[in-house]
């Protein structure tokens, strides 16, 4: 049929075709929409890599968006996945079972580890490291994140400061302190991997790090006024990115006795782009159900569909960082952390990424501040346990006394 229509148009003239004028009027707009959508959805990863037998730790995999797309692809390729989740409950258990059925991969496990809780992070890392010989680990993929209502519209409240169990601002705790603590504690595991094993630490970042600030002397932002929530989010991403550059240097500079140089361990920062994600919904809705339903889901969604990526498309840059041979030791051009944007290598824009002294000091200060918080919380936990025991003893004595009466 299309051939007949084109033939008739060529012989008799396209003006004779039905609805030609309407099609001619609409065609430029349709072509423009298609062109914008092809541009906004971004590149697709074309590298293939066999992940059979490889072991990865994933965070943020249960989002039903980018994280789930990455986990699905890795599971289909045969990787063993240890997925960290804030709570292991009925929903997360069913989610894992569904992922196993869809991929035919039974080597997918859940581990409870709330990244906003430094104590839980240490418990998981200690359990992972407490193994002889060292457990196999081919990489860590960090996709978790927390974004609080930002109050972008004048007159809207951005809400009160939410705190983690350790008393840190929730975005700083989840996006920066928890991830930093996890990777810092797992560093011995990275170094212990055989030199022929390609280990990749992939950390997702966000373009909002452009509005972030670096608090070198107060990296956990304990003394900073909570006036601009979006600044806390951007700063958490920026500080984490800067610390990853120092982490790479520390891994490379610690040559072990058996000759391991650490060059088989690659740290990568991946920027997935603007997606129709939970964070974007939170940012636009400002935590309001009304705005989420009527403005985001109805009024803005056509525009967002046109200009933003799906979770699947956002996952492509992470999958690229995971599979590209450019990051293998034999193909290294230099020893710098790579920045992946739209399935290609990009350059850092901010001057802080060229300041090694700043990165080193930020890393050391963060490590020290986290240790201080951990010690303070350990004292509180011990006092709480003692009080609980004393209360239990008191109730036991009362019960015995009542029986004697």
From TrEMBL:
SUPFAM superfamilies in UniProt: NAD(P)-binding Rossmann-fold domains
Pfam families: adh_short
Coiled-coil segments on the chain, per record: none
Segments crossing the lipid bilayer: 287-307
Phylogenetic lineage: Eukaryota, Fungi, Dikarya, Ascomycota, Saccharomycotina
Protein name: KLTH0B07018p
Gene Ontology MF term list: oxidoreductase activity
Protein family per UniProt: Belongs to the short-chain dehydrogenases/reductases (SDR) family.
């Amino acid at each position: 049929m299309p051939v007949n229509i084109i033939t008739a148009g060529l012989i008799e003239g396209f003006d004779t075709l039905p609805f030609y004028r309407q099609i001619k009027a609409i065609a430029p707009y349709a072509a423009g929409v298609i062109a914008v959508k092809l541009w906004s959805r971004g590149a697709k990863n074309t590298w293939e890599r066999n992940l059979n037998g490889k072991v990865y730790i994933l965070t943020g995999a249960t989002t039903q968006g980018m994280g789930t797309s990455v986990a699905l692809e890795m599971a289909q390729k045969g990787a063993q996945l240890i997925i960290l989740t804030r709570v292991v409950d009925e929903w997360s258990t069913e989610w894992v079972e569904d992922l196993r059925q869809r991929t035919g991969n039974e080597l997918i496990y859940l581990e409870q580890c709330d990244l906003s809780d430094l104590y839980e992070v240490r418990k998981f890392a200690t359990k992972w490291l407490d193994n002889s010989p060292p457990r196999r680990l081919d990489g860590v993929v960090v996709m978790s994140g927390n974004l609080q209502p930002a109050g972008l519209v004048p007159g809207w409240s951005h809400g009160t400061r939410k705190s983690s169990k350790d008393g840190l601002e929730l975005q700083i705790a989840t996006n920066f302190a928890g991830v930093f603590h996890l990777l810092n504690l797992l560093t011995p595991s990275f170094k212990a991997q055989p030199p022929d094993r390609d280990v990749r630490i992939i950390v997702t970042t966000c373009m909002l790090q452009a509005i972030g600030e670096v608090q070198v002397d107060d990296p956990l932002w304990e003394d900073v006024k909570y006036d601009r929530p979006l600044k806390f989010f951007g700063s958490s991403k920026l500080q984490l990115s800067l610390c990853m550059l120092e982490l790479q240097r520390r891994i490379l500079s610690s040559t072990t006795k058996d000759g391991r140089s650490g060059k088989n361990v690659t740290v990568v920062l991946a920027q997935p782009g603007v997606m129709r994600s939970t964070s974007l919904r939170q940012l636009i809705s400002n935590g309001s159900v009304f705005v989420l339903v009527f403005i985001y889901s109805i009024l803005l969604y056509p525009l967002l569909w046109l200009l933003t990526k799906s979770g699947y498309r956002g996952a492509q840059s992470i999958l690229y960082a995971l599979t590209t041979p450019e990051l293998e030791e034999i193909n290294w051009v230099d020893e710098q952390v790579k920045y992946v944007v739209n399935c290609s290598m990009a350059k850092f824009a901010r001057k802080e990424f060229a300041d090694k002294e700043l990165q080193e000091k930020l890393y050391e200060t963060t490590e020290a501040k986290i240790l201080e918080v951990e010690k303070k919380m350990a004292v509180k936990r011990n006092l709480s346990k003692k009080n609980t025991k004393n209360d239990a003893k008191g109730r036991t004595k009362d019960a015995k006394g009542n029986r004697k009466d």
